[in-house]
Amino acid sequence: MKDQLQKIYDEAQEMLAQAKNLEDIENIKLKYLSRKGELNSIKKNLKNLSDEDKKVVGAFANEVANNLENSVKEKYDIFYKQELDEKLKKEKIDVTLSGKYIPRGHVHPVTDTINEITEIFHALGFSLTTDENSPEVETEYFNFDMLNFPKDHPAKDMQDTFYTKTAPHVLLRSQTSGSQVRTMESMKLPIRVIDPGRVYRNENINSRKNNFFHQIEGLYVDKGVTFADLKGVLTEFLRIYFGSSRPTRFRSSYFPFTEPSVEIDVQCIMCHGKGCRTCSGTGWLEILGAGMVDVNVLKNCNIDPEVYSGFAFGMGVERLSMLKYAIDDIRLYFNNDQRFLEQF
Ligand code: PHE
């Protein structure tokens, strides 16, 4: 047994001599000195020896263990110091070097407008619908069919809407209104949500039109919701967003998914209603479509129109921002010119 111990000791010393780093040392500790290590497994056999031998071999085993522990510690300290020195050298910082100017960015004006409008509707009792209810890559089913669009409606045409090539009936949504349907199908009544997001249209790009922009959809469905609620909520929104001195008007309109429908115009900020290039001489700019949720849409979503009613609205985010800050070209929001963005 003594021989065995001596052999282990020699072997361990040999490995220590060859160790190159802290990790090697840890492995040696594990192999020889840990509870399940080789020294301990030999010590366990001591009980089979005579009392006389036990004393001698036991004392030797302890000596071997102590010696080995000391050598391991010695080596460990050397490597520890070495690795620490290396690390310190590598991570040295010269605190006397002059600093670098890192310009601070800020929120994009589109995001900023969305945040501002979201806060206003929060205060009016609206929360956000879920992201799952608002995919940008949408199906014809949610973007048009469930919203009561007739099969041959011109908006469904490829001239107006971007269809994907990967699958039939899959498109880039042309409006956020599809989220109305998804929300009514997935959330419990009453529903009072808004949904900001990006939409895509196959447009000729000019100062007032881009082929993608942002909308904020709104939906309120409960028992006894009337057109007076629609008018009250949207008038209050306009008052908070534009201030009470900006003239606005409700104009009757048509959407397949609302009945009756309205559009809201805001007086042109460029000419203050006199008529100019921006407002095509009318003095007004359309910013929002709205109406009472069509009975057919409620039915499509399995909501009983005899019990529930609701209103919906959708507004153009860039339009709202343009009309607040007197910006006359929508393309400025998308070409990332710092001279423009810095002003916000
Ligand atoms: N989705 C319509 C549009 O893009 C706006 C709208 C939303 C109208 C909700 C009525 C109700 O023009």
Helix content: 40-55%
Helix/strand structural class: alpha+beta
Q: What's the order of the H and E elements?
A: HHHHHEEHEHEEHEEEHEHH
**pLDDT averaged over residues:** 92
Structure overview:
- The chain is an alpha+beta fold and 344 residues long.
- It has two domains: 2-90; 109-341, BirA Bifunctional Protein, domain 2.
- The chain is 40% helix and 19% strand.
- It contains eleven helices and nine strands.
- The strands form two sheets. It has a seven-stranded mixed β-sheet, with helices on both faces. A two-stranded antiparallel ribbon has the order 2-3.
- The radius of gyration is 37 Å and the shape is elongated.
- The protein starts with a helix and ends with a helix.
- Residues 175, 177, 255, 258, 289-291, 312-314 line the site of phenylalanine.
- The site of phenylalanine has 10 residues, from strand 8 and strand 9.
Write the layout of secondary structure elements.
Layout: H1 2-18, H2 22-33, H3 38-43, H4 51-90, H5 109-123, E1 127-128, E2 137-139, H6 140-143, E3 170-172, H7 178-186, E4 191-200, E5 212-222, H8 227-242, E6 248-255, E7 258-267, E8 284-293, H9 295-300, E9 309-316, H10 317-325, H11 338-341
Parallel strand pairs: 1-4
Antiparallel strand pairs: 2-3, 4-5, 5-9, 6-7, 7-8, 8-9
Helix pairs in contact: 1-2, 1-4, 2-4, 5-10
